[in-house]
Design a protein that fits this description.
mainly alpha; elongated
């Protein structure tokens, strides 16, 4: 095979069947899963680097490569049954953001940053609603130690679910691939991380805290998980926004059980 064929075969392996990678997108599995993926991708990245340093128009070469990469992703997406497309897409996006991009950054070649920028551009062309971002492996691994959100984690704990359960990992993937890429999504995430610790603190001070978390699960968190599994990503985002508004109004205040007045 030519260097170009080696490069494309390695890069596109992640988007043909992204669920193979997503199986290791869990706190305890991600380090080993990423390292195995990175080592498998090195021959392809060696081929990209060789081409980048030798061809007359390296930027054009990377653009063509990125275009083919995104087009193949779109082809696999289009051939997925409609009822499963959104879930397949979030898995594809997570495979790229959680494995391909950090692997390219870890390779640290001359081609690394330009290749990522070309892929991001072409991905946006094929999937206009997406806003896939790049981050190094270390930042993504740290993300497993950042809670989906404090309220969701607290609600899971009340139900006897651990921090690495399937539901929380699904919500983390949704947060990092879909929500963060939507207009105002990153701001919503940052806002909620600012206010959520106080909300949880005040809920935990109430004698009916377990019942409150159960109601939040039934009204918001559980339906969010179902919406993601069914590919209704916008419905999940609407539920999340409403949960932020409702819990902020009911439980975000300086002192529990004390009604504040405007001055």
């Amino acid at each position: 095979m030519t260097d170009y064929q080696i490069a494309m075969e390695g890069l596109t392996s992640s988007i043909k069947d992204p669920e193979l990678l997503i199986k290791s997108f869990k706190k305890n599995l991600y380090p080993d899963g990423f390292q195995k993926f990175y080592l498998s991708l090195v021959p392809a990245l060696d081929a990209v680097e060789k081409l980048y340093l030798s061809v007359g128009e390296p930027d054009t070469m990377l653009g063509n490569m990125a275009q083919s990469f995104a087009a193949e992703a779109k082809d696999h997406y289009d051939r997925t049954p409609k009822r499963s497309r959104e879930v397949f897409f979030i898995n594809q996006s997570l495979a790229v953001a959680g494995y391909v991009f950090p692997a390219i950054l870890q390779y640290n070649g001359k081609c690394s940053v330009p290749l990522i920028e070309h892929i991001r551009k072409e991905w946006k062309e094929c999937f206009p609603k997406s806003n896939i971002k790049s981050a190094p492996y270390e930042d993504i691994e740290k993300g497993f130690h950042r809670k989906w959100c404090y309220i969701t984690t607290a609600a899971c704990q009340v139900r006897g679910m651990d921090d690495d359960c399937e539901e929380l990992n699904l919500l983390r993937a949704y947060r990092d691939t879909y929500m963060a890429g939507q207009s105002g999504g990153e701001d919503l995430i940052l806002e909620y991380y600012d206010i959520a610790p106080s909300i949880v603190k005040h809920i935990n001070l109430r004698p009916d805290s377990a019942q409150i978390y159960d109601r939040l699960w039934e009204k918001y968190i559980g339906p969010c998980i179902i919406a993601i599994r069914e590919g209704r990503m916008e419905d999940c985002l609407s539920l999340y926004r409403q949960m932020v508004l409702d819990t902020k109004e009911k439980y975000f205040h300086l002192y529990p059980h004390v009604k504040q007045t405007n001055r």
